[in-house]
Structures are given as structure tokens and as C-alpha cells.
Protein 1
Amino acid sequence: RLVLGIETSCDDTGAAVLDETGAILGESLHSQKEVHLRTGGIIPTVAQQLHRENIERVVHEALERSGVTPSQLSAVATTVKPGLALSLGIGLEFSKRFVRQHSKPFIPIHHMEAHALTVRMLQPVPFPFLVLLISGGHSLLTVARGVDDFLLLGQTLDEAPGDTLDKVARRLSLTKHPQCSTMSGGQAIELLAKKGDRMRFPFTTPMGQSYDCCFSFAGLRNQITMAIVKKEKEEGVEQGTLLSCVNDIAAAAQHTVAVHLAKRTHRAILFCKANSLLPSNSPTLVLSGGVASNQYIRNALSIITETTGLHLLCPPPQLCTDNGVMIAWNGVEHLREGKGILSPNVDVFYEPKAPLGVDITAEVKAAAIKVPS
Ligand code: ATP
Ligand code: FE
């Protein structure tokens, strides 16, 4: 069985052809990162136009590299939710035309479910397992119980950690920094943080008084911005031109994000244990999403998994960020189970907002589990 996966939910146009074992037969990815770095954020109409310009080429490239013809495909899997409406629309319209033209089954994919299950492409991780997804648009803790069966333990109440790091990086004008000009905000902060002293900016970890598994980063971003403004004033420099202590601010920001993520995850693990949501034999935490490429954050989470006896798995960075491979893999998983497979003529719509699984965040909050600091 061969599946073509198509991803256009945000700012990456991706396509890939996978076989049933998860072997990548052909892949193509067009990233819009540089364009959006220049404009200081994603402009949806620009993202849409770039998807429109690239989708055809990207899909054909993936097919060509795989040596698979459209008629040999078993199905086409495409992200239809959640994401930017204008971006999702391009991938979906293309896919609808493609499946009708070649009379292929269509598998609509939930982008976050695909992120959560990517790890199973690399090694057999049995359900259920705990997942922390941290990216530019999301921050959530979920128990993956099956291909389309998820429990949502907590999610961000405001912005996502990648978004926060990107905004801090922009406030510090890190794209003008000689070493970071082509890096995402998160990557730039990770690099500068290596040379910084986090103790010089003791930011408060968010949500210390709420004993749930939700996240919040907007308040932290405000703390960081205030610290930057204060330093700019002290040094008498213009906004966004701070030179001293940039490394220290980066280190402190990264550290506080890591501690916040680690604490919520620790609570989620204790909640899962108390409610027997994970197997007692070799329970697993999967860490994914673009922010999961951060080594400091990975280390913080590995301390938590070590102390709680969980196994930590993290797909390689290129599979943590958006790509067509993970969408094709999610299609393979659906095909194996015979779930969510539509005929080529069924009308499908995209959904910019789409919850992930059964929401038990209130139950988690009510349990009010305390974690050691
Ligand atoms: P979503 O998947 O929620 O739709 P997205 O497509 O923006 O959002 P990803 O492609 O998974 O997210 O990840 C991009 C984000 O990851 C950016 O915000 C970027 O700053 C962040 N990021 C990338 N590398 C690192 C790193 N080394 N450290 C921290 N953050 C990073
Ligand atoms: Fe993503």
C-alpha cells in the first residue's frame, strides 16, 4: 500500500510518498520561512499565494522521486485541520482535484494527530502513550490511545512557546544578528542561550498557582519584554538594538519556557499514573513539534521522564516540524485500521480550529496534583 501525503496547514508546502512500513519513497518540502522572517511574521494571504505557486511542483517532485505513479497510490492523505484557513484551502482544493482525477480514496488528516503519531513511523510504540506537542502554533499534552483516539490533558491558554520565542527574537532583532540571520526565533534563542547566564534574569515560571496541565506564555513574554525595555533604557539604546545581555535574556527565556513545560508534563505523568492511563510496563513520553528540536528543553524533559520512570522519545528535528511525511504516515495508520477513508467524490471542508480528542482538562485541574519544584 502506498500513500501520498500533502501538508499546507501553515507555512510549509510538503508532500511525500510512503509505503506501509513507513519507508519514505519520495519527499519534497518547500519552506516559506525566509519570506515570513523578512516580514516579521506570517501574512496569511502571502502564505496562501506561496502554497498556490508551489503545491503542484512539490507534489509532482515527491511522486517523481518515489518512482510511484498516481495510479499506483492506495490513497491520498491531506491536512484539513487545524491551521490557517487560506493555507489549508490550497492543499485541500489541490487534493480534491487530484483524487477525483485519479479516482483515489481520500483521507482527511488532523495536523496535530499527525505530529503525535509520527514517532510510530520510526519504531513500534504501542498505544497508549503520552505526547507533549510544542510548536509555533500549539502547546498541548495528550494521551494517544489510538489512531483517532486522543485525550486532551491540557493546552495553552494564550500563545504557543514557539510563537513566544519568535516574538522575543523579533523584539531583540535577532535576524540582524550575524550568526542568526536565517534562523527561526527559537533556533536563534537556543544558539545565543549557550553563551548566556540565565541567573541574571530570574523570570517567574508561569501558572505557579494553578495545578493543571495547561500552559501560558503570554505573561512570560511580557516579563521578558519589560526586562528588555529596562535594559534598553539603562543603556540608552534604541528599541531593538540591545547588544549586551542578549545572551543572558535568551538563556533565561529558554530556561523558563523549559521549566514551565517540564512542570506541566510532570503533572500530566502523575495524573496518568494515578488514573492508569499509561501502561505500567515501559510507559512512554513522546516529544514533538518544532520547539522539541531545542536541546535544552529536551534535557529538561528527560530529567522528568527519568525521575518518573518514563521512556522519552523524540523524532529527529526534520520530522518534528511540518512536513508531508507525517501526513502520509497518518494516512498509512488510517488505512491499516480502515478508518476515516473517504471516496474521491465526498465533499470535505477544512477546519481552521479543531479540538484534539476528548477534552479532560477540567478533570486534570480538579485532581490538583502538586509537583515538586
Ligand atoms: P503548528 O505545527 O502548531 O501549526 P508551526 O508549523 O509554526 O506550528 P513547527 O514548524 O512545528 O510549528 O515549528 C516552528 C516553531 O518551532 C517556530 O516557532 C520556531 O521558533 C520553533 N523552533 C524551531 N527550532 C527551535 C529550537 N531549536 N528551539 C526552540 N524553538 C524552535
Ligand atoms: Fe505543525
Note: Residues 9-10, 135-138, 162-163, 165-166, 184-187, 190, 289-291, 293-294, 321-322 surround adenosine-5'-triphosphate (ligand 1) (CB under 6 Å).
Protein 2
Amino acid sequence: MARARSGVDVAPRGRVPYGPPRAAPAAVIPTATLITLLACAPDDSPMPRSIATIPFGTTATGEVVDLFTMTNANGIEVRAITYGGIILSIKTPDRDGRWDDIVLGFDSLEPYEAGSPYFGSIIGRYGNRIAGGRFTLDGETFTLATNNGPNHLHGGDVGFDKVVWGGEPFEREDAVGVAFTYTSVDGEEGYPGTMEVRVTYTLTDANELIFDYRATTDRATPVNLTQHSYFNLAGGAAADILGHELTLDASRFTPVDTTLIPTGELAPVEGTPFDFRTATTIGARIDDDHPQLAAGLGYDHNFVLDGDDPDVTSGLAEKNREGLHRAAFVFEPLTGRTLEIHTAEPGIQLYSGNFLDGTIAGKAGRVYGHRSGFCLETQHFPDSPNQPAFPSTIVRPGEEYSTRTVLTFGVAG
Ligand code: GLA
């Protein structure tokens, strides 16, 4: 617990102290013995990692969708499909060796197509909002779909979450993964330039899930790719995510107007409900009387990551892992599960599942109530194409957009 609460410490590195769920038949071995066996399994008898591909379904327009099941040497399992690059499930152990699925979603393809709040999907061409669905680039004004009130959200009517990607499984010495590829044609959803996009998910034996995003274009265009998994680290043990203890390595955030477009200010979190520099439950201040919480109906804000910004003196900036900075650490007290996020991106969107309202029945019929999942979307800041003071999101011909985010799963206290 002390580790998780410290706010600056990191999750246990390396393997979780548990083996895979299928290591021994629970029915014939007493629970106490089973836990001992599982605790010994990874070092004594590592499971072979694996990657399997099977058909998942066919879209309404007849496109075949594949399902990839990635399993690492410790038994952590990630399932993802070629429709939207959607992560269907992530199974990890809790502190007592009980395994559960820690993301929200559906069991079959049809509900993803019928209307999903971006459960588990790749987001593009532009993650988050562009004001008024318009931006001007090199003197030309482009008009995008306004699919979120007056604004453009998550790539438009048919964003990267609603297309079928190519998918190629791969295996390395210490990891398995899938490379998703997609060609976004010139003019798609109003964006300029044909863009070749490649997003890989790599599940390592160090219990990391690595997202690598790459894109090239034949014409200047904004790009801001992210991953929209909704986490509930309690698995089935808690209906909402308000008890999760969150640390964000961010001394500032970007306040928004009532349509969730940044005002342009980088506001200090100090003294506000947006100060997560030391571990605080998501629910502790979510209903405070604060105009920004009123605008977001809770947390739905971009945080400015301290990274290696010399102007920031919080002391939380922590460079590691091939130049990535830590963005977030989450500890779920009921189960002990932890999630740590490192990224090359300057921002992270904390979305506390405010629009979930109990009308969606997900996996195994489970109803997803208000704030039953949270998203931590690494990104450039919302509306950057219209905000010259924000880090640029423009990629030009001859350049490569390349960014990485690493999730690390663990357990603590
Ligand atoms: C993002 C947005 C939210 C919401 C969700 C999807 O996180 O910032 O406002 O649109 O996606 O429901």
C-alpha cells in the first residue's frame, strides 16, 4: 500500500508473482496449495507464450474480422480484433492470484458496430476534439464531421475505431504481438492526404502492453492517435472506478469550455480537484463544486505531463524506458492490481466514464453503470490544430509520426 500511495514510486517491475490461470486444475487442489503453486510457477516453469488467430465475425458490410489472443509467459492474456483494433479483454491476476478481465467491452462484433462508446479501440485520425470541426493548415481550411455537439471527436463519423484493419501476429523471444495496418485515404472524414497507419500491440513477459503508433502521409495533416480502453482494475469486484487510487505526473491541465474544447490555458492543478500528483482516489473530489468538473460532468480533461519540462518543479518527472516519461500510476485497493503508464506523448486524457449510464449491457450481460470504467488516453492536446501555442500535431510528407505508450500491469500491497 505504501508503495502505491507514495505517488512517485513505480509498480513492481518484472513478472507478477503469479502463474497462469490454467497452471493447475482448481477443482482437485485445495485453494491454499493452488496459490502456493501459482506463486512459484513463473520462475520454476514458465508458460510458453503464445499468439493465436481465429475468425471473430463478419461486419454488416461483409468484411471478415479476426481475433488475436496474446498470452505472455506469466499467463497474462490480451485479446484484440481487426475491427477498430479493439482490445476485447485483458486478463491479469489480483494480489491473491485470482484472474479477471480488467477492461469493458462486448462479447461479439455486432454491439461494437451497433454503437460503442469507443470501448478498447484505436482512435484516429485525431484523438479527442477539434473545435467546430474545422482547422486551417497551410492557408487552406478543412471541414470535418461535427459528431460531438458543435465539435469533431475521435476522427469523425467513421473514425479508425470503426474500420477493419489488416492484422499480422508476430512473436519475439520475450513477447508476442499484433501489427495492425490501415490506409486512410485522402479526404476521409475531411482530412487531407492519404495516410498509411501502423499500430502494434506488443505483450511482453515483463507484463507490459506496448502501443507503437506510426503514420506517414502524402500531404500535411493533423494526426493524434491513441487507445481508448476503459479500465476497471477491480474486474468484477467493484461496480465503479471511484475507489481507484490515481497518480498523474502532471502539474498542469488544460481547462475546457462547456463543449470540452480547451480554452488555451495551461492551468496549475495545485489546490484543485485536478491535483493527482500524490495518489488520490478518482472519486474523492469528482463531485466537488468546481466549474471544470461541471463542464466535464466529472473528469474528462487533458493533463499536461511534466515529462522533462524544465519549467515544472514538482519533482515528479521521471524519465526512463527509452526516453518515455511516466504519465500515470493506478492502484486498485480491493484487488491490489496496478497499472502504470509511460509515454512519449505530452498529454493524457482522464475520462472517468461520465457518459456511461447503465444503458449498455456488456460482456456476459454486465450492465455498465455510471463511472464503471475509466480511460487514460495518452495524446497531444485536444484541438491542437486550432491552438498554435500547443505542441504541433501536424505530420508532413517525408516525416514519420511515431510515438509509443507502455502499460505495465502489476500488483501491490
Ligand atoms: C473521450 C472523450 C469523452 C467521451 C469519450 C467517449 O474520452 O473525451 O468526452 O467522448 O471519449 O465517450
Note: Residues 117-118, 128, 153, 260, 300, 349, 351, 355, 375, 377 surround alpha-D-galactopyranose (CB under 6 Å).
